[in-house]
């Protein structure tokens, strides 16, 4: 009986040890962080330049961790972070994501959906009040504006290309979607942006550098959370946003800046 009890105790200890991190991560162990994002002009250029790449490099490279960037379409990139151990992090995810990801304290940008409508339609932009008594479209199941706040006719569509088609056919007065998706759909349709007016939706959503669900990510996030206030204090983070002239400094990062 004592032998059985001893074996059980040893087995339990071995299982606990196998489930624990094999080593405490530190700078001497981590030399490279692999980060992936789609190609977004001036945000994540394919050549490794852009707002997002500059921020991530400013966070990690002074800490002795080289940033290895990759450009991959969104859906495939997400799978390579969440399902396959290819990349350590992906740029551009929301914190309420349903994917198994870990997030730092500080967002990297604020995403605002774009409102698009044809020029010459006599529409005067007045924020959300502009939608009143008009036909507004967005992708099915987006639920951008709660139903009890809608004083307009909603027409949902399957994808952005369909929405742009409906807009050009006069079946929609206004379209709401992500700007990069709108730009791509207009390009594919051979229609110039000069034929439309575009505005940002009033409410924005923070987007993050989102990390794989792993023990390594805890260390990478710790570095990220430590370095962002340091970069603000040095004025380097503000300089990066000013250099590129795109994106928006998230609210809690702006609070750090205001406290300087």
TrEMBL record:
Keywords: Signal. Residues 1-22 form the signal peptide. The keyword Transferase does not apply. Gene3D superfamilies: Periplasmic binding protein-like II. The keyword Metal-binding does not apply. Belongs to the bacterial solute-binding protein 3 family. PANTHER family: AMINO ACID ABC TRANSPORTER SUBSTRATE-BINDING PAAT FAMILY PROTEIN (PTHR35936:SF6), MEMBRANE-BOUND LYTIC MUREIN TRANSGLYCOSYLASE F (PTHR35936). This is Solute-binding protein family 3/N-terminal domain-containing protein. It comes from Bacterioplanes sanyensis.
